[in-house]
Specification:
CATH superfamily of the largest domain: Aspartate/ornithine carbamoyltransferase
Number of helices: 10
Number of strands: 9
Helix content: 25-40%
Radius of gyration: 19 Å
Bound molecules: phosphoric acid mono(formamide)ester
Structural class: alpha/beta
Distance between the termini: 18 Å
CATH class of the largest domain: Alpha Beta
Strand order of the largest sheet: 7-6-5-8-9
Order of helices and strands: HEHEHEHEHEHEHEHEHEH
Shape: globular
CATH architecture of the largest domain: 3-Layer(aba) Sandwich
Number of domains: 2
Length: 305
């Protein structure tokens, strides 16, 4: 039995296989419509979600399986003081696989120690979000046809943005990625991510506060929301929340084949007018999230075809 807690729990070869399976699902959905018949996915979301929870549920339903779970901790016995371990142990008696989101870093890892079925980390605090990374990799692959030889700009809240941490880890395993980190000084990428993913491997990177000065270099721009729920005080959030607002004017000096990604939800960091730009890939990215999760559920249940 295996779990997906961190993106590095998957080898590069397995990620390539997941992307190939997702591509096949997109091309031949009927072929997969009963692969998970009789299987149940539990979604245990102790923190709000739209895309991750619903794409997991839609993925399992499209594979012929069924779903159960909760979308807020208050509707589970957590509200009576039950531990995460006991909750997960209980649900693993009913479901074949569990996708879990929790505000505490490391909670899915702790859950995996007691679960009797595979655990998928659907986001743990400001730490990791490996299935968003699979979505991002499928999107980059579909937009660009490859996963190497890019300059990638990560912009916004790089401190608390768990999707950034997981994607940096994932891309550091591909050839010739030039990392550019764009954030306010207070929201720089954490030292532990730079140390583990980049410095140990001798991968160069640059850090700046100025998006417009680096825009012409970028092949991919990964925008992120300032994570209000992780701030210790509202004053700091209000000061930093509008640090970067992507507008059509700011894209005038960007490459013609730039791909703009965002894990969503967005608040104010990409103007709606940018959605019409063919380089805006974030709504295609939302769709991709379902297909890569279908491939992942199949892999983790040993049901690959
Ligand atoms: N990208 C993402 O995790 O979105 P949700 O919070 O809506 O699941």
């Amino acid at each position: 039995m295996r779990n997906l807690i961190d993106i590095t729990d998957l080898s590069v070869e397995e990620i390539d296989r997941l992307i190939a399976t997702a591509e096949d699902i997109i091309a031949n959905p009927a072929k997969y419509s009963q692969v998970c018949a009789g299987k149940q996915l539990a979604t245990l979301f102790f923190e709000p979600s739209t895309r991750t929870r619903l794409s997991f549920e839609s993925a399992m339903l499209s594979l012929g399986g069924s779903v159960l779970g909760f979308s807020e901790a208050g509707s589970s016995s957590t509200a009576k003081g039950e531990t995460v371990g006991d909750t997960v142990h209980t649900v693993s008696c009913y479901a074949d696989i569990i996708a879990m989101r929790h505000p505490k870093e490391g909670a899915p890892y702790a859950a995996a120690q007691v679960a009797e079925v595979p655990i998928i980390n659907a986001g743990d605090g400001g730490h990791n979000h490996p299935t968003q990374t699979l979505t991002d990799l499928l999107t980059i692959h579909r937009e660009k046809g490859r996963l190497d030889n890019f300059t990638v700009g990560f912009c916004g809240d790089l401190k608390f943005g768990r999707t950034v941490h997981s994607l940096v880890n994932a891309l550091s395993r591909y050839e010739n990625i030039n990392f550019v980190f764009i954030s306010p000084l207070e929201l720089k990428l954490p030292r532990y991510v730079k140390e583990e993913a980049l410095k140990k491997k001798g991968i160069p990177y640059t850090q700046t506060t100025d998006l417009e000065s680096v825009m012409p270099q970028l092949d991919i721009l990964y925008m992120t929301r300032v994570q209000r729920e992780r701030f210790f005080n509202e004053e700091d959030y209000l000061r930093l929340k509008d640090s970067y607002i992507l507008t059509p004017a700011k894209l005038l000096n960007a490459k013609a084949d730039l791909s703009i990604l965002h894990p969503l939800p967005r608040v104010n960091e990409i103007q709606v007018a940018v959605d019409k730009d063919p380089r805006a890939a974030y709504w295609r990215q939302v769709k991709n999230g379902k297909f890569i999760r279908m491939a992942l559920i199949m892999m983790m249940l040993g049901l690959e075809i």
